UniProtKB/TrEMBL annotation:
Transmembrane segment boundaries: 21-41
Residues of the signal peptide: none
InterPro entries: G5_dom, Glycopeptide_resist_protein, Vancomycin_resist_VanW, YoaR-like_PG-bd
Short name of one Pfam family: G5
Species assigned in the record: Clostridium disporicum
G5 domain segment(s): 387-466
Name the UniProt record assigns to this protein: Vancomycin B-type resistance protein VanW
Region (Disordered): 465-489
Biased composition (Low complexity): 472-489
Tagged with keyword Lipid metabolism: no
Keyword hit for Zinc-finger: no
UniProtKB keywords: Membrane, Signal, Transmembrane, Transmembrane helix
């Protein structure tokens, strides 16, 4: 064998050996790859088995949600967690007083769906082997929930606490007899800031069953609405007005007395609005009101409370002459005997009222009474606020509307007979002006209103009964008697 043949043999032997080695290595790679693939597939299958489950160790306020499906976890949250939350209390202290607000009393609910969704998603975006590790070793994760509750129940609790600890303030009072003014001192009260307590409670409400909450608030002193300092500003009469009435109608007089009595003693703090109808109340017989004539449209009819418009008109004059303007006022449909046109104020329960607001920065007190045949109102306040001025409400007739005559046939009356059933009254258009005087000199004249009053026609009954003609009898004749002469003297 020559040298070349020997070399070729060795080369072929080496190649054969390398080929076997490659096959062995390839086989090992395939085997390892297969084993790894199988392992990865096993891990993947294990991880995917948890796709619809919460990873071990995930909790919500101590409740283990690990291994639970979404539905199972939601059920746990809505039962176990809500039960634990419902047992919680918030302790509230007010001075020496203690109160407890039970969570169960505010109807708590939790966002179970959102909480479980967060728990279920935890770790699901990690790498495969990270997921495997979390599944095998567990995690330490707490998910939060949002606690909802009935806020109105919290408000009720806070108000109940205040009602139990508060001490009501007592207003100062004023009494006026004649021109004598007497004021009693107010008494301060104590209460809590209810809104502050509500906010404190809302701020500490927490779904964690292990967390204890306590709130402390203090009693605060407060002044009543009406103080002696304010009432002491009332030092005299700012204006007065009176009107006269006939004492022949006892029912009407009683109505005047009742309505005036309801108004007497009215105190209006700055900004307060006076309502005549609200003050005198329903004019019903149950409240003592009597029947007397009232206007209904263009007719006069009896009605309970007849006459109360004289009281409102008199009060209107007194109030406006204290330079307090009306916020609601209407004139009568026809003129009245106790007030000039343009200077009255009618009322009707339910739809016509007389109102005004105390526009001064001090209280106003109304004194009203009947004296003889007069309705009298005095408006008390701070005399210095008038600045030396006085006011007078005057009227001016702009137009006059003459009344007509309505004839009503009456078969019970003889023809030619005319009887006036109700007298007529002219109507008019009139303006009311508030005249301001300073030191007795007129300095201003302001238009307050322009009012229209309908005429009230005269109503006459006209007889239609026929009168039978009487037959005349011939006169009897008697013999002529001799005339006796009177002797001359």
């Amino acid at each position: 064998m020559n040298t070349e043949e020997s070399k070729d043999g060795k080369l072929k032997a080496a190649m054969s050996k390398n080929k076997k080695l490659i096959i062995i290595i390839a086989s090992i790679v395939v085997l390892v790859t297969g084993i790894c693939g199988a392992y990865v597939l096993s891990v993947k299958n294990k991880v995917e088995a948890w796709n619809d489950k919460i990873y071990p160790g995930v909790q919500a306020y101590g409740i283990d949600l690990g291994g639970k499906t979404k539905e199972e976890a939601i059920d746990l949250i809505n039962t176990q967690l809500l039960s634990l939350i419902g047992d919680k209390v918030i302790k509230v202290s007010v001075g020496d007083n203690s109160f407890e607000l039970k969570y169960s009393d505010v109807n708590p609910t939790v966002s179970a769906d959102e909480t479980v969704e967060e728990a279920l998603e935890y770790g699901k975006d990690a790498k495969l082997f990270k997921k495997k590790k979390m599944i095998e070793n567990g995690v330490e994760v707490n998910v939060d929930t949002v606690l909802s509750y009935d806020e109105e129940k919290v408000n009720e609790f806070a108000n109940n606490v205040n009602n139990q600890v508060k001490v009501e303030a007592v207003d100062a009072t004023i009494s006026i007899s004649g021109s004598n003014i007497s004021v009693t001192q107010e008494t301060n009260g104590k209460h809590i800031d209810v809104e502050a307590l509500i906010n404190e409670i809302k701020g500490c409400i927490d779904p964690d069953p292990e967390k204890a909450e306590e709130v402390s608030v203090e009693l605060q002193e407060y002044s009543p609405r009406i103080t002696a300092e304010a009432l002491n500003k009332i030092n005299g009469i700012m204006s007065s007005f009176s009107s006269t009435f006939s004492q022949s109608d006892s029912g009407r007089v009683e109505n005047l007395r009742i309505a005036t009595g309801y108004i007497n003693g009215t105190l209006l703090m700055p900004g307060d609005e006076f309502s005549y109808n609200n003050t005198i109340g329903p004019t019903t017989p149950e409240r003592g009101y009597k029947e007397a004539n009232t206007y209904v449209g263009a007719t006069i009819v009896p009605g309970y409370g007849g006459g109360v418009c004289q009281v409102s008109s008199t009060l209107y004059r007194a109030v406006i002459q204290a330079n307090i303007r009306s916020t609601e006022r209407r004139n009568h449909s026809m003129t009245v005997g106790y007030a000039k046109p343009g200077l009255d104020a009618t009322v009707a329960a339910g739809y016509i009222d007389y109102k005004f607001v105390n526009t001064y920065d001090f209280p106003v007190y109304i004194q009203g009474y009947l004296s003889g045949n007069q309705v009298v109102f005095n408006i008390f306040g701070n005399k210095e606020a008038m600045g030396g001025k006085t006011y007078e409400l005057v009227n001016e007739i702009l137009e006059t509307y003459n009344y007509g005559t309505e004839e009503v046939k009456d078969a019970s009356l003889n023809e030619g007979t005319r009887i006036v059933k109700s007298s007529g009254a002219n109507g008019c258009k009139a303006s009311g002006y508030l005249v301001t005087y300073e030191n007795g000199v007129q300095i201003n004249k302001e238009l307050i209103s322009t009012d229209v009053y309908s005429a009230r026609n005269e109503v006459v009954s006209v007889g239609t009964k026929k009168v039978e003609a009487q037959v005349e009898q011939p006169a009897e004749t008697t013999p002529e008697q001799p005339t006796e002469e009177t002797p001359a003297n």
